[in-house]
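Please, why this fold?
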Amino acid sequence: MTTLYPIPENHPQRFVLHNEVHARAPFILSLPVRASHLALLLTHEEKAQERKHLIMLCERFGEAPPEKEADHFSATFDSFQIRWEQHGEFSTYSFYVHDTPKDPFADSALKKVPVDWLSQLTGQVIVAAHAAIVSPADIDYDEHADLASLSIHFAGNPVIGSKVTGGAASVFTDFRIHVDGFSRFFIINHGLRTEQAGRLLQRLFEIEVYRVMALLAFPIARKLYPALNKSDRQLYTITNAMTMPDHNDAELLDELTTLAAEVENYISSNHFRFAAASAYYQLVEQRINDLREVRIQGIQTLGEFIKRRLEPAVNTCVSLSRRFSSLSERVSNASQLLRTRVDIIIERQNQGLLTSMALRAKMQLRMQQMVEGISMVAITYYAASLIGKIAEALHVIGWKVKPEIVEGISIPFILIIIAISSKRIHKIIANTTE
């Protein structure tokens, strides 16, 4: 890109990062509008297949397909608009139709989408919802009258709702899946701008998706509670045994190691799910705050209903995750304490062994010194005998010497020579070892 000013070249990701703030922008919708929303859980392979399936729909209506690396896409076809978004765990499809039939939920926006294309969508449905934005005149709505008339759109179920976006609209739902497999949002337009309508629908659909995604961790939490309690009791049994004087440290250390492996396996296997639940719940809270709800007298607001029913489940998941982390730390502390005790015992054993070895070396030295003394006597005896033999030979050939006297006089000199030689040998050995 040509620059008008002599500034350094652009970072390779500058424009991508700059334009990220405009990604996934809400539709600008014409009112009235009906919408259908699908959220599908997908594997990595299904995500690749999903993109090809979306390209087929674009080719069918002669529209430009999404770019190769795009994770969101919007288009207007003959009778409906589509918005596709690909997230980390799921993908969403929103379909919009700009009219208002007599029963917006019986004649939903999804009926405008080709049936054969819908039937070949990949993944598993985690959320399916219909929504309709109508004017008060279309349904003879009076905000001061009894709201029981709205329950016909929700199969007679109790209605939850509030005024939103500064009173520009009223939103009603029952947070139930109806016989068609879809939940429902009924929105009465008091003065929505087209930009507001798109943001409002997007927030409502996101609340529904993130609410369900946050709850994916709840069945796992309930399933793991018995395992957590079992591991907790097992740790108590081990630490209690550590206080006993006759316990076997090696066996307890093996049990602790096994327990630590089990706990870490539970944590590593489910850490992502519990962290995701917390993140999704924060998104739900943020989207509810963005609605700027105002109470309609006599019914619960969406925020109150969700907080009352979703918060305990999320808190359960958070509590379980924290307890597992705490258990892991306690197991680690117990293992460290037990290893310290084992190390001290081994050190004491080694110290005793070294003392015993030193005593044996000292005894061997004394024995060696005693043997060395005896050896000096033996060497003196044999050397003196040899000198005596020589004296006898000299006496035989005529020398006037007495062999016994020569032999006796040689003994002290032989001892002195052997002692000096022995001392010199010891000195040489000492210098060599140093």
Residues 217-351 form one domain. The chain has a mean pLDDT of 85. The first strand starts at residue 33 and ends at 41. The chain has three domains: 24-201, 217-351, 367-424.
